[in-house]
Design a protein that fits this description.
This protein is α+β, with helices and mostly antiparallel strands. Helix content is 33%, strand content 22%. Strands 1, 2, 6, 7, 8, 9, 18 and 19 form an 8-stranded mixed beta sheet that branches. Strand 1, helix 1 and strand 2 form a beta-alpha-beta unit. It is elongated and about 70 Å long.
């Protein structure tokens, strides 16, 4: 099989001007670049790191969408009103309604757009807080993020869209309140100013920025993070310097299921629970509805005061969520042929764990969780040996706050005035998710608002 060639351009090929400059090589930035180029714009992407894809690479479970053909093929009957309500409730009813409405009403078309570009998400799984299966993923059940990033990169190559890595955006330049150029820095050419009519900031969040965390959520400083090293909030600073406002900056999501027993922090995808895993304490007993929202699961784990909790699953769950193969290959998973043997390895109460699984299986058969009211992620019981355990602890995962935008992805000032020619999309923005982001909505956001940014940049330039 031919080796995949990453779409990195030689900095010597840099032009003096572009119609649209995209800052960041994650899914939002690539989607916007592709959409804009298809509408006739000359586009370039700048990425400060040598590695590409940002946090999009790390998305594991799926992309939420509603009223799709994939749902119908899996006999899931869904609607936009239910999707909206789940997100609204999960976000503590603090979501920006304008952004949320646009998000919900454009999720199906985002799936269709991906399909048109041969990016196929034809399987479904569940995420916490969702009343229906909405997390779309590849047919082989692999991680959605790495699959989508690679496929979008193929589009960049096919369309000859330049992507300049190790090139940092330094300053957005305006004249008479209108974007005119971007100052960049690359080690080979030094600092250079590139003329442009529009700029999209798609550079991700700030979970790796200790200074920002200290300012907005100092109580989270002791926690580790699942984020890649480049998630330092550079795009937020660029936007503020250009007159943009920030919203919801103190709203930072802690993911309940990460593995931290090695030198690295590994996200244990929500799809593990979505496919049937349960969480237990050291006594071997369930303590929470595993499929409630992330903030509630995190709180339940913290309240144990037991240095985390343990996910329990069987071979059936493993087969339904193949990422577990990777988790096991790097030593994050304990395995045993019986629950009593597994309990011993995981330092859990053996008798209680066995009783817990027996009760869980009865709940699964009846379709009713008599203990915690779980309603999703109950497609299978836990009867297929071997059995597995993963020790999990909460970690910083996502910054819900960011640049203030409207549903056109236009960057707004603190007072709501738009900055002509400046757009933002993806995790770098704030308002959509409210107090708590629902699993599966981050990748959806990148495609939905990435497309919108590309469309609006084209509209702006054609009317320029």
């Amino acid at each position: 099989m031919a080796r995949f060639v990453f779409p990195v351009s030689n900095i010597d090929e840099l032009k003096e001007n572009y119609d649209l400059i995209v800052i960041g090589s994650g899914a939002a930035g690539m989607t916007a670049a592709i959409q804009a180029q298809e509408l006739g714009l000359k586009v370039a992407i700048f990425e400060k790191l040598a590695t590409l894809g940002g946090n999009s690479n790390r998305a594991s479970t799926g992309m939420n969408a509603t009223e799709t053909m994939t749902q119908l093929s899996h006999q899931v009957i869904d609607n936009q009103a239910s999707f909206y309500e789940d997100i609204w409730q999960g976000g503590g009813k603090t979501n920006n309604k304008e952004l949320l409405k646009y998000f919900v009403t454009h999720s199906e078309s985002a799936i269709n757009w991906l399909e048109k570009h041969n990016i196929l998400l034809t399987d479904l799984t569940s995420t916490g807080g969702m009343s229906q299966k909405r997390a779309h993923r590849p047919n082989n059940k692999s991680a959605v993020g790495s699959y989508m990033v690679k496929e979008l990169q193929k589009q960049l190559l096919d369309k000859h869209i330049p992507l300049f890595s190790e090139t940092k955006a330094m300053q957005i330049v305006k004249k008479d309140g209108i974007v005119t150029s971007l100052k960049i820095y690359n080690n080979k050419i030094g600092e250079k100013t590139i003329k442009t009519k529009t700029i999209l900031i798609a550079s991700g969040g700030f979970s790796q920025n200790k200074s920002m965390l200290k300012n907005y959520a100092p109580e989270l400083l002791p926690l580790k993070t699942t984020n890649h090293p480049g998630a330092t909030g550079d795009g937020l600073n660029l936007a503020v310097a250009a007159g943009g406002g920030l919203v919801d900056m103190d709203k930072i999501q802690v993911h309940p299921t990460t593995q931290q027993d090695t030198d690295h922090v590994y996200l244990i995808g929500e799809g593990v629970r979505g496919e049937g895993a349960i969480s237990v304490n050291q006594a071997g007993q369930r303590f929470v509805n595993e499929m409630t929202t992330r903030d509630k699961v995190t709180m339940a784990i913290d309240n144990l005061h037991e240095n985390g909790a343990t996910l329990i699953l069987d071979q059936g769950v493993r087969q339904a969520f193949p990422a577990i193969d990777f988790y096991q290959s790097i030593g994050l998973v304990m395995a045993a042929n019986s629950l009593s043997e597994l309990a011993k390895k995981a330092h859990l109460d053996s008798e209680n764990l066995t009783a817990t699984v027996v009760k869980w299986n009865a709940n699964q058969i009846s379709g009713k969780d008599s203990e915690f009211g779980r309603k999703t992620g109950m497609d299978r019981g836990m009867n297929l040996s071997p059995y597995y355990a993963i020790h999990i602890k909460p970690a910083i995962h996502y910054t819900m706050g960011g640049i203030k935008i409207n549903n056109l992805t236009e960057v707004l000032s603190d007072t709501g005035e738009k900055i002509s020619g400046l757009y933002a999309a993806g995790e770098v923005t704030g308002g959509l998710h409210g107090d708590n982001r629902m699993g599966g909505n981050s990748i959806a956001e990148t495609i939905i608002f990435g497309r919108q940014a590309g469309v609006q940049a084209a509209k702006y330039i054609f009317n320029y």
